[in-house]
Amino acid sequence: MRQSSARIEEGHVTVGLEGKEKQLVKQLIKGVRERRVISVVGLGGIGKTTLAKKVYNHKEVVEYFGRLRAWVYVSRDCKPRDIYQKILEEVYTPAAQEEAEKITTFDEEQLGNFLRNKLEGKKYLVVLDDVWTCEDWNCLAKVSVNEPGSAGRVFPVGKNGSRLLVTTRDENVAKLADARVTLITMQFLSQQNSWDLLCRKAFLDADPLAFPEPLLELGKEMD
Questions:
Q1: In Å, how far from its chain's centre is CA 76?
Q2: Rounded distance, CA 176 to CA 171, Å?
Q3: For residue range 151-190, what is the model confidence (pLDDT) as tens digits?
Q4: Helix or strand run (H / E) with residue 139
Q5: Are 48 and 42 spatial neighbours (Cβ–Cβ below 8 Å)?
Q6: Are the beta carbons of 103 and 114 closer than 8 angstroms?
Q7: DSSP letters along 11-34, please?
Q8: Cβ pair 94, 103 in contact under 8 A
């Protein structure tokens, strides 16, 4: 089963994301103080999670949000209680063992309310990687059936500069989560970027101009 974490693996190579990375960092730390949900949309395997990781670990983003950053993998098997638990583990440290034990007894509703209380009035960044459906978003944010399209009850709105960053394959999820924000839409690499990526992966960032001609021709046939 695919998993994801915020850690960028050593030696991981990326190409063609610089412009989107800059745009996304700006959306996270600049602009309105109201909480916003920013979405990265695209096909599976196209680079949504890679872009989100780069931004999550970006120096300016880390400095802006400090300790109140959390990364959680949602997936098709969306389990809100588990997701709330993982977010809490990253943004909150219980004052005593007794409190920690009490938290483990909370059901989904109680844990969602507890998470909201701990985020209330604070500037936070939560990444929800791989949200599959609108129903999953509504369930995670606890959007009332009587208030479709509302912000929900779990992630405080406030005016502290907080952000949620969502990666999804479904543009409808992004529009439902926050219709006011411009989506970051992932596209396939250009031919030149595809070639650069192949070179960097195959030859460890060596200068392509220094490659033997037979290797260059073979690589272009494969590209």
A1: 15
A2: 9
A3: 789 999 989 999 999 999 999 999 999 988 888 998 755 5
A4: helix 134-141
A5: yes
A6: yes
A7: T----S-HHHHHHHHHHHHSS-SS
A8: yes
Task: Dump the DSSP string for 94-158.
Answer: -SSHHHHHHHTT--HHHHHHHHHHHHTTS--EEEEEEE--HHHHHHHHT--TTSTTS--SSS---
Q: What is the spatial distance between Cα 49 and Cα 142, in angstroms, rounded to a whole number?
A: 24
Continuous segment of H or E residues that includes residue 72? strand 69-73
Structure tokens at 119: 């985020």
pTM for the model stands at: 0.81
8 Å CB contact between 48 and 187: no
- As given in the structure block, the two tokens for residue 22 are 């800059």
CB 98 within 8 A of CB 156: no
Question: Which value, to the nearest 10 degrees, does the dihedral of the CA atoms of residues 41, 45, 48, 50 take?
Answer: 180
Q: What is the pLDDT of residues 10-19, one digit of tens each?
A: 444 454 578 8
Instruction: Dump pLDDT digits (tens) for 194-216.
Output: 545 555 555 555 555 555 666 55
Please report how the helices 108-119 and 80-91 are oriented relative to each other, as an axis angle in degrees rounded to 10. 30
24 touches 184 (CB < 8 A): yes
